[in-house]
Amino acid sequence: MALIKCPECGNTVSDKAKTCPHCGVEISDVKQGAPNNGNGGGKKNLWMILVPLILIGVGVAIWVPAYQHKKAEELARIEQLRQDSIAAVEAELARLEQLRQDSIEEIKNRLTINLFCETKSKNYNITTLKVMILKNFKTIQQDLESLGFEVSENKSLREEIQGDYYNFKNLTLTREKWNDNITVSLNENKENIVITFPNSELKDYFLESALKDNFRKVSDKKYTNYKKWQEPAYEGSWDCGTKLSVNGNQITISEDGPPFG
Questions:
Q1: Which residues contact 192 (CB under 8 A, 6 or more apart)?
Q2: How far apart are CA 219 and CA 237, in angstroms?
Q3: Coil, strand or helix: which one is 254?
Q4: Closest by alpha carbon to 217, among 198, 249, 244?
Q5: What's the pTM?
Q6: In this structure, how many other beta carbons lie within 10 angstroms of the beta carbon of residue 210?
Q7: Nearest by Cα to 245 from 224, 231, 215
Q8: What is the spatial distance between Cα 249 and Cα 198, in angstroms, rounded to a whole number?
Q9: Is the sign of the CA dihedral 17, 19, 24, 27 positive or negative?
């Protein structure tokens, strides 16, 4: 009698036994005297380990590419949103810049010397000259308001000059747009206008409009549109008309003439 190992449980049994006394499996078809290496149970256990691993491997092989593809799609979507956001911001900035440029062009074309001055006949004692003089301040105010200017200050001042008191009215209008603020002060009783430009570009364009309207550049700080007043009855002569005084980006418009005009 020889001993063999049960192909199911691996325990030692007689080669004469028809069934395994340990697990009850039939072993009658195991050849008598044939050696048994006892790997039957081991192979089964090995497959029990390999099959899940294979399934896991197959699952990973399917899931990883799908995950990577989904991740790539999500990254592409996020990148597209970023690009769309950048494009939208750039488009809005371009639109605002165009509006700003349009606003500047409107000011350049309308805020000229002709908005503040006009050529009219003016009496100087016994002489009448056709000269450039300041417009009516109410008219100037209305024209400025049509350009988007608003009254920012309106005050009356009482000043003493050589022992006499005078009332002065000062009206300030400001155009606050695109950070290119322009301020115009109408000093009615002092008969001058002070324009404060936000930059040299608009100031220079205003001065160019004056040169086109027969102003003469005396210096970088003085532009004039004068006619000479002279009468034989009086000794001397006077310049009559309008003067522009330039101080940085500020221009003062005022009239000149004889002291008895």
A1: 252, 253, 254, 255
A2: 22
A3: strand
A4: 244
A5: 0.60
A6: 24
A7: 224
A8: 7
A9: positive
**How far apart are alpha carbons 141 and 213 in whole angstroms?**
21
- Tokens encoding 94: 């371009």
User: Quick count: other Cβ atoms within 10 Å of Cβ 164?
Assistant: 7
Pull the structure tokens for residue 245: 């005084």
pLDDT tens track of the chain, all 261 residues? 677 888 778 788 777 777 888 887 777 655 444 444 555 556 667 777 877 888 888 878 888 888 888 888 888 989 999 999 999 999 888 888 787 777 777 778 888 999 999 999 888 766 788 999 999 888 999 999 988 888 888 776 666 656 666 566 778 888 877 666 889 998 876 689 999 998 898 899 999 999 999 999 999 999 999 988 876 666 677 888 999 999 999 999 999 887 655
Both tokens assigned to 15: 């080669």
Q: From CA 85, how far away is CA 252, in angstroms rounded?
A: 47
Ranges of H-type helices in the chain: 40-110, 113-116, 137-146, 200-212
Helices 200-212 and 40-110 pack at an angle, to 10 degrees, of 30
